[in-house]
Design goal:
This protein is 59% helix and 7% strand. It has a three-stranded antiparallel sheet with strand order 1-3-2. The relative contact order is 0.11.
């Protein structure tokens, strides 16, 4: 495998400021690692499982621990309203979410994860967590495991980061 210093994709970004250009090798290595791990985890899904933005939306509702309005979900998931409308309709048809009017503002519809959606999310996470736990236990030292835990927290922060001049609002393939 080529070193990230040899990768032209890691070096092409003349519009970036110096600190951002200096971060390009780390950004490129992280992007490649995250992409490879995401592909590996996707390969563990069964054919019956939902994927991508639908799974991400269920996880968002689960983590929120409360119903959310569509505008807040769209913003958090970086989805266009049209895309979110389709995803919500599909999840609703599967019985994975519940929709109800807000008791204070009847114009707003609150969206929450339904018990069936929570079960689906749990089964999906169990399979992937089991594989990850085994891979971590058999391939990483205790010190590397701690670094990975810290890196996971940092990746969560990066996922929520607002960056000036972000390209597009639509969430990519998830």
């Amino acid at each position: 495998m080529a070193n990230e210093d040899d990768d032209p994709l890691a070096l092409e970004a003349p519009e970036l400021d110096k600190p951002s250009r200096d971060a390009l090798p780390a950004a490129n290595a992280l992007r490649r690692g995250v992409s490879r791990l995401a592909r590996r985890l996707r390969s563990l899904r069964s054919d019956e499982e939902i994927a991508g933005a639908k799974l991400s939306l269920l996880a968002r509702l689960h983590r929120a621990g409360r119903p959310m309005i569509a505008a807040d979900i769209a913003r958090a998931e970086r989805l266009k309203p049209q895309s979110l409308t389709r995803i919500i309709a599909e999840l609703d048809a599967l019985g994975f979410i519940r929709r109800e009017h807000d008791s204070f503002d009847h114009r707003q519809v609150l969206i929450d994860i339904a018990p069936r959606g929570r079960r689906h999310l749990a089964l999906h996470a169990i399979r992937q967590n089991a594989w990850l736990a085994q891979a971590i236990a058999t391939n990483l030292t205790p010190a590397e495991r701690e670094l990975l835990r810290i890196a996971a927290e940092l990746m969560d922060r990066l996922a929520d980061a607002e960056v000036f001049g972000e390209a597009g609002e639509e969430g990519g393939a998830r």
